[in-house]
Amino acid sequence: MSAQLPLDQLLLGDSLQRLADLPENSVDLVFADPPYNLQLQGELRRPNNSKVNGVSEDWDQFDDYAAYDAFTRAWLQACRRVLKPTGTLWTIGSYHNIHRVGAILQDLDYWILNEVVWIKTNPTPNFRGVRFTNAHETLLWAQKEQGQPYIFNHNGMKSLNEAKQMRSDWELPVCNGHERLRDAKGNAIHPTQKPEALLYRVIAASSEPGDVVLDPFFGSGTTGAVAKRLKRHWIGIEQDSAYAEAARARIAAVEVTDEDEALYHSHEPRRLPRVPFGRLLEEGLLDAGQILYFGENGMTQAKVLADGGLKYNGRRGSIHQIAKDIQDGPANGWQHWYYQDGKNGPRRPIDDLRQKIRAQME
Fold first, then answer.
1. Do 108 and 13 fall into the same domain?
2. Residue 288 lies in domain
3. CATH number for the domain including 31?
4. What pTM did the predictor assign?
5. Which of 51, 210, 287, 296 keeps 20 to 30 A from 112, CA to CA?
């Protein structure tokens, strides 16, 4: 199936037409940054009377809400067709459109996994002073089929967030400075270019190296640039030739520092093969009657039973149950029990033995 895909290519043309050319059930992840239907009224000026360049392009103009809804339904249906059953879709918007997009998303039987708020650390002020400063945009993350397994690199996101579980409020600046693509006159090439930091989180969180990431509104190519950096395949669709030219040049300039794919995988223990503690006895890595120690330097001991349980203080139970009793709270026994490696050797975690078995299973 993947051989039929135009991997790492930008397809010039209308999104719906180009999506129809892609194979069914062939894409792992979609990131869609559709027109917001901003419906700006009149021009906006700063206090110094300079004009604010909003989004006035034809691609963001719709006759009414019905026309926008029909457009939204069409592209969401087209993306649903090409997504694998295990695939997920991200879409982004502002208060102008995201509620309509979300409703249609649910009408089409996508299952929403998360709503993420991108809090802009450097938003454009409300120059007229008649509303709150609009300082955020909303991302919706949904799976194609409720109940199917899907990729979420929980530990990877936790690692990005200094070992704290990542929340659904992301504080990131808008795209500016050297990252902003500009023409020879210094004007922004695309009015709604998204920051790479935003796409980095999206792609790193919900895909694996080698997966296919599709962006049906490719614009200036942020999705492709980040996908390439993270060793994912990408497919972009863009109808504007100027945007497409800038995107191709941008992605071509991306250099991958190291080709070792292992560097781009998130370590997710929950996806590793399950190994029962008893398997360590079956493989001869531990023996019945052997002593385990609670903690690397702990004095508390338990004795290994032939059935894969432990005996401690007259009680029998699993490595997890006994650990829970000892510390009087939830416990993962793999993280607490140590064995002595040899008669006078050092203590080592029993998880080292589990990893030996997993290595044999690969």
1. yes
2. 272-361
3. 3.40.50.150
4. 0.79
5. 210
Domain check: are 257 and 291 in the same one? no
- Does 317 share its domain with 335? yes
Same domain (yes/no): 231, 279: no
Residue where one domain finishes, among candidates 270, 305, 333: 270
d(CA 139, CA 112): 11
> For residue 143, which amino acid is it?
Q
Q: Based on the fold, state whether residues 241 and 279 are members of the same structural domain.
A: no
Q: Are 112 and 99 in contact (CB under 8 A)?
A: no
Q: What is the pLDDT along the chain (362 residues), one digit of tens a residue?
A: 444 899 999 999 999 999 999 999 999 999 999 998 876 555 544 455 554 455 667 766 788 899 999 999 999 999 999 999 999 999 999 999 999 999 999 999 999 999 999 999 988 888 778 889 999 999 999 999 999 999 999 999 999 999 999 999 999 999 888 888 898 888 888 888 999 999 999 999 999 999 999 999 999 999 999 999 999 999 999 999 999 999 999 999 999 988 888 899 998 888 888 999 999 999 999 999 999 999 999 999 999 999 999 999 999 999 999 999 999 898 999 999 999 998 889 999 999 999 999 888 86
Q: Clarify whether residues 82 and 217 are in a common domain.
A: yes
Pairing of strands 136-143, 347-349: unpaired
Residues 177 and 278 in one domain: no
- CA 39, CA 272: separation in Å to the nearest integer? 49
Which secondary structure element, helix H or strand E, spans residue 117, and what is its range? strand 111-120
> For residue 315, what are its two tokens?
């009680």
Q: How far apart are CA 100 and CA 81, in angstroms?
A: 20
Judge residue 167's burial from the number of C-beta atoms within 10 Å of its C-beta, 0-12 exposed, 13-18 middle, 19 or more buried. exposed
Distance separating alpha carbons of residues 345 and 325, to the nearest angstrom:
28
Per the DSSP assignment, residues forming a β-bridge with 112 are: 142
Please count the other Cβ atoms lying within 10 Å of the Cβ belonging to residue 112: 14
158: number of Cβ within 10 Å? 14
State how many domains the chain has: 2
